[in-house]
Design goal:
- By secondary structure, this protein is α/β, with parallel strands linked by helices.
- It contains twelve helices and seven strands.
- It is globular and about 60 Å long.
Length: about 290
């Protein structure tokens, strides 16, 4: 298993004037000390890219917080009237409230709106647990705010440029398909074939067929080819494995990867805090 953002966000992200020069994968010096503050004095980041939280995963995290407390501090910035706005750690904040905690550990940072957006996006996108549409919208906003190209954004968030491009293409889908993707009624694998069709009419026709006939990603690929899907719709990805990765991610509530090596391979489950590690272990023991 690999550990991503558990290293801390430190001095966060430089302002636009610094041209976003520091990559989010670097380890900035963390000169802040965690302190306990009243949980009711924390307000949610208005720029948070995540819009949905999986209930089952939140229940598991809540149980972990009840047993072990909040191990990884939240990051907040000071607001008026003694309030603090949350920058990173909304899952932990929600779980803490559900667990009945009165205070939580935080690290206080002074940041502007661009930095809030950057940190909230990067924390989530590197965890890869945003739904594809929230990710795409957040990527687009980050590109616009910092005047970044796809290549530059890809470097800053540690993703291949092709991955960023494919994510942004999801915003070209009709609204009904985007909503289905957000609600997990279809997978990103389905959507990548839908977005490759050359008209909204074809996209909606295949979308309805996916829902009505419960088409797999592989079946959707075949249907897209019959309907004249573009080369972009046939990205060289093992979608059978992508479906399995999705099932693993749903079960563990964490990023999951299948790495092929000959006839065998590895299953990699990522975690980003001790709370998440405890959640994963608890599910394995069931």
């Amino acid at each position: 298993m690999t550990n991503g953002l558990g290293r801390g966000l430190g001095s966060l992200i430089p302002s636009k004037s610094a041209q976003f020069s520091q990559t989010p994968n670097e380890l900035p010096k963390n000169d802040g000390q965690a302190i306990q503050i009243d949980i009711d004095k924390i307000i949610v980041n208005s720029l948070q890219p995540r819009k949905q939280f999986i209930d089952s995963a939140m229940d598991e995290l809540t149980l972990s917080v009840k047993e072990y407390g909040v191990i990884q501090p939240l990051i907040v910035c000071p607001e008026k009237d003694g309030k603090h706005e949350l920058i990173a750690g909304e899952r932990r904040l929600r779980a803490s409230k559900a667990a009945g905690l009165k205070t939580v550990p935080v690290i206080i940072r002074k940041v502007d709106d661009q930095e809030k957006l950057a940190v909230a996006l990067i924390e989530n996108i590197q965890r890869e647990d945003l739904n594809p549409i929230d990710t795409a919208q957040a990527c687009r906003k980050l590109m616009d705010e910092f005047n970044l190209t796809q290549d530059e954004l890809a470097k800053k968030i540690g993703k291949p440029r092709s991955s960023v491009a494919n994510t942004l293409r999801m915003l070209k889908l009709p609204e009904d398909i985007q909503l289905a993707l957000m609600d997990s009624r279809i997978t990103e694998g389905h959507a990548k074939y839908l977005v490759g069709l050359d008209s909204e009419a074809k996209q909606m026709a295949l979308f309805r067929k996916i829902l009505h006939n419960d088409l797999s990603v592989s079946d959707t690929n075949k249907e897209a080819k019959v309907m004249g899907g573009t080369k972009a719709a046939r990205i060289k990805i093992n979608y059978a494995d992508k479906d399995k990765e999705f099932a693993l991610r749903e079960f563990f509530g964490a990023k999951a990867e299948i790495v092929r090596k000959g006839k065998g391979g590895q299953i990699i489950i990522n975690f980003y805090s001790d709370e998440e590690l405890h959640e994963i272990i608890a599910k394995v023991k069931k």
